# Entry
Amino acid sequence: LELNSCSCSVRIAAILFRIFDFVQAHYFKRDDVTLPGFAKFFKKNSEEERKHAEKFMEFRNKRGGCIVLQDIKKPERDVWGNGLTAMQCALQLEKNVNQALLELHKVASQKGDPHLCDFLETHYLDEQVEAIKKLGGHITNLTKMDAGNNRMAEYLFDKHTLDGDSS
# Structure
């Protein structure tokens, strides 16, 4: 991981632009799934991650960095079966993004780049922790409700937790 390399910024930007959430949002809108709260939750996440990727690329451009488009890896699945599984997959992805950001922060610190450190701390690291915490809470509640096996519990979580989720 080299701080000044294009691959570094593209790697992070590609991770941040999580097509995964977009695919999940549309999965939960399908007529044979119909969980609008999950769809709304993942669509909102996708929009936020797109904004994060744009902000990161703007930051790189301001500093004379380059933006090189690379293939974004296809999600390992496009059918999740239930909301609990989708949340678990999203949590793992958030943890992977967080780890990549922490590695970039470490390199920036070692290379004496306080601007990048501040940028990451201000715009990404706290938000990643909050996203991980939120997903973890949703997973805990879904697990307690046995929503992986109980469609009524999943429906109630979708309707009463996610559909009204404005945060």
Notes: The chain has one domain: 6-162. Helices lie at 6-16, 19-27, 36-62, 83-110, 114-144, 151-162. The mean pLDDT is 83.
